[in-house]
Write a structure and sequence with these properties.
Number of domains: 2
CATH superfamily of the largest domain: Vaccinia Virus protein VP39
Bound molecules: S-adenosylmethionine
Strand content: 15-25%
CATH topology of the largest domain: Rossmann fold
Low-confidence stretches: none
Distance between the termini: 57 Å
Radius of gyration: 20 Å
CATH class of the largest domain: Alpha Beta
Shape: globular
Helix content: 25-40%
Number of strands: 9
CATH architecture of the largest domain: 3-Layer(aba) Sandwich
Structural class: alpha/beta
Strand order of the largest sheet: 5-4-3-6-7-9-8
Largest sheet: 7 strands, mixed
Mean pLDDT: 94
Length: 273
């Protein structure tokens, strides 16, 4: 299996083979190690082969398994949700670092473009007294986010609504986060096949220069955030300067630009002036 994946140009063949084999057999890693010689049944062999073929056509392991770990939590995925990226954990870290617990009221968190719900649910997992709302334009994605909230035991503190960003909402959120689509439309064809063919276009396409969603989100921030509330936004490579300018034009104060795991500027934290 490892050899076939390697020959097919898959980057981490040993890791992928292990993950796919475990999923196909319904076992933990340890079971494979303790009984490597165990024979596969015809049905198991068929499942392994099907997974292998899917991986060889460029489908990410997380898509094949329908699941991705984010912030140490397990999130179900479907065709309408972005596959959460490890770099987005920097957004959660940054938000928690700047978040000021409000006095005399329970914290309210808003996640615009929630997808699988990974950002909102990771934040609610950490902020035990908080309540949160995730919006998305995709009902299908919201269905997955609701399932994830329930599976993580956070369903009673998380609500999800189909909305165009925060247009239908009023203020009072102590923390507003978003990882909007930020790839310039014309660049999407040039992305890795894992991304281009398997992440939904609605989660990638940020318009002509990739910044369309921020123009809306920054304009809405003042009306959505409480006084003293903060906004934390993820952005793409090379967008830092343009984003700074957009934030300033929208009358926001930049608190910090945080770097991702690769040391690249990735997260912008803002507040009202
Ligand atoms: C890059 S994905 C981020 C998903 C998730 N927050 C994450 O970090 O994995 C952007 C999300 O924004 C949603 N979206 C795109 N346009 C939107 C709009 N106008 N209003 C609300 N959500 C939108 C997409 O459906 C997608 O789920």
């Amino acid at each position: 299996m490892v050899e076939r994946l390697a020959q097919g140009g898959i980057e981490n063949p040993a890791l992928d083979a292990r993950l796919l084999l475990c999923a196909a057999l319904g076992v933990e890693d340890i079971a494979l190690i303790s009984a490597p010689e165990e024979k596969l049944s015809a049905e198991e062999r068929e499942t392994v082969e099907a997974y292998l073929q899917r991986r060889l056509t460029g489908e990410p392991v997380s898509r094949i398994l329908g699941r991705r770990e984010f912030w140490g939590l397990s999130f179900g995925l479907n065709e309408a949700t972005l596959d959460p990226r490890p770099d987005s954990e920097t957004l959660v870290e940054t938000a928690l670092r700047h978040f000021n617990l409000p006095q005399n009221e329970s914290p309210r968190v808003l996640d615009l473009g929630t997808g699988s719900g990974c950002l909102l649910l990771a934040l609610l997992y950490e902020l035990e007294s908080a309540w949160g709302l995730g919006t998305d334009r995709s009902e299908n994605a919201l269905g997955m986010a609701r399932q994830n909230a329930a599976a993580l035991g956070i369903g009673s503190r998380a609500a999800f609504a189909c909305a165009d960003w925060g247009a239908a909402l009023r203020g009072g959120f102590h923390l507003v986060v978003s990882n909007p689509p930020y790839i310039p439309g014309a660049d999407i064809e040039g992305l890795q096949r894992e991304v281009r063919a398997h992440d939904p276009r609605a989660a990638l396409d940020g318009g002509l220069d990739g910044l369309d969603p921020y123009r809306i989100l920054f304009a809405q921030f003042d009306g959505l955030a409480s006084d003293g509330g903060i906004g934390v936004f993820e952005f793409g490579a090379g967008q830092e300067d343009a984003l700074f300018a957009l934030a300033r034009e929208a009358g926001l104060r930049v608190i910090e630009t945080a770097c991702d795991l690769g040391g690249k500027p990735r997260i912008l934290a803002v507040c009202k002036v």
